[in-house]
Amino acid sequence: MQKSYALFFREAAQALLETMDPDLRERAAQIGGMNTAYIGTARDIHLDEAFEALIVNSAAELFGKAGKRRALFVVGEAGSGKTTAVEKHILKRREFAPRTAADGTEYLPLIPMDAPKPLTVKGLAKEGLKAIGYEVNNPRLLATDLFELWKDQLRERRVLFLAIDELQHVLRGDTVKELQTVADVIKSLLEIPGWPLHLILSGVPELAGFLDQSGRSNRQLKERSKVIELRRMTFPEDIPVMTKIVNKVVAVEAGLKPDTAILREEFVHRLLHASSGAFGSMIQTTRHACEIALRRESATLGVDAFASAYALESGCRPSQNIFNAGDDWKDILPSNSLQELVVEGRNMPQKRKKEGK
User: Fold this and answer.
1) By the 8 A CB rule, do 139 and 90 touch?
2) For 289-334, what is each residue's pLDDT tens digit?
3) What angle do CA 89, 156, 161 make, to 5 degrees?
């Protein structure tokens, strides 16, 4: 029997909440609500269409045969918001809600899970069985046995859709053989006899390139798949929409007044650059800045809060802070934010030696 860790956490968090001052409780409620809000954009139109197509295709089997493109790849860089977007589109669809079968058995038409790291056939099967609540107590079961058991349980528990996140671990295989094995596994899930399972697979953009790998299984997998990319935000094309989103997060979600400086084109460009164009990261940094302003009991959100948020998130020195740097801020690479600290740390033993410490 699986433990209800979610219940354990709520009990522990509630006990923590009861020890906090009233103003801290109010701030916790505000931050919780702010981080729960979902920011929709034009890309959600494409996701809506893709999810609807999966649902309709699954039901089409009742009237003949479902189309063979039953795998949806949602790809985007880290921080692009792909996990949040997929979760949102799963939650909004009543077709994925829990059901009760004719015999009274409750079941979930869609099962979400994270790909294990490292990704192996045995690890994927064990994680898949765990996601549907099936305990595996025999450590001697082979990968093929576990995989067949998983497929049997997917049918037994009436699972029509399987959502696997963080599938980029497939790209870290040591050999071409390992990559090909995972391709065969995904294709096998799409070919369960009498059970047209639909897959929602998310990961980094290189995952789409995986479909172009040579090999018969990969070609067949490509023929069974659709791909949606949650692309990087770019300057100047996305500045207008990101300005509106910053304003919404600050004014609507956090209830703060945005300083005019943070709604200017150059500032939003800095935010885009600091986030490497990652949509989700831009929103997270904005919310983090709002949290800092709330802690400081400031009614207005200004550049200083963003600079503080970025410093905490990146660990950068003041000279590398994109939000309060001079005109050369575009030359600062977010990926090198810790460079000064790392270099100083490497030189410290020699410096101490020279000083005789």
Assistant:
1) no
2) 999 999 999 999 999 999 999 999 999 999 999 999 999 999 999 9
3) 15
